[in-house]
Amino acid sequence: MTAVDVAIGVDVGGTKIAAGLVRLHDGAVLERLQRPTAAARGGAAVLDDAFDMARQLWHVAERTAQPPTAIGVALCELVDPTQRPTSGHAVDWRALAARERFATLAPTTLEADVRAHAIAEARFGAGQGHGSFAFISIGTGISSTVMIDGMPWRGARGNALVLASSPHPQWCGRCGAHEAVVLEDVAAGPAILARYRAAGGSAADTAEILARIGHDPRAATVVGEAAAALGSAIGWLVDVIDPAAVVLGGGLGSVAGVYHDWLCQAIRAAIYADDTRHLPIERARCGADAGVIGAALAAGGRR
Length: 303
Fold this sequence. Notes:
Structural class: alpha/beta
Helix content: 25-40%
Distance between the termini: 11 Å
Largest sheet: 5 strands, mixed
CATH topology of the largest domain: Nucleotidyltransferase, domain 5
Strand content: 15-25%
Shape: globular
Number of strands: 12
CATH superfamily of the largest domain: ATPase, nucleotide binding domain
CATH architecture of the largest domain: 2-Layer Sandwich
Strand order of the largest sheet: 3-2-1-4-5
Low-confidence stretches: none
CATH class of the largest domain: Alpha Beta
């Protein structure tokens, strides 16, 4: 797609829909809109809201000297190389002509949200200067993508982003017990909150649990176990792809503090090669606008 200076980015997540007018040469978000996703209403209702937000931004842009000529939509689902959603875990657009609907406003690119976030980090954030990096998004779910020269590696079917959703069977060599562990059930934000409450703690959200690590042993245990489990998985990913760096994003991954320190320690402890173990591990820098910026970049051709 021909590079343009302004594009609309729409980030459709499980919790909220964010949209903005993005200036592509510097990533500035000129106008912003946000609504709750309320995914329980169904995919069609979420699509109606996302399209309405894009249309509102289009009308705002019509009053400027340089209206957008592209729309990028980041979706919190699997998206194949033909830009078709192939999963519907949170927002089910599989039976809907979502991209075609946005395209009634302007040519549209549909991308998986983790890849859109990584595109933003490659262009304007912590991925700058790295020829390759592994991007891990840690929040409500846990996803990953591998960036090579500013482009995400999608895999043969677009599914190269599922890091923590599959069960991993484990057997005890002493007693023969078998357990199939799903990493998101241990290390994602909702899992940390649920495990903390099950241990007798009370908190409104995961951020409160992170803040209690220093004075609440239950918080320290739950967060420490989450960091150790996820760090082992990321270390394995590093062993497999040997990236120049790791970038941690999402609501948990981009937060500084004890959790980040523990996670970095666990990642490095799990890496096999001595000369890889000291690779840079960066926190994402594009913040809450990352998905909007990355979606716009994917549509505008500036990757």
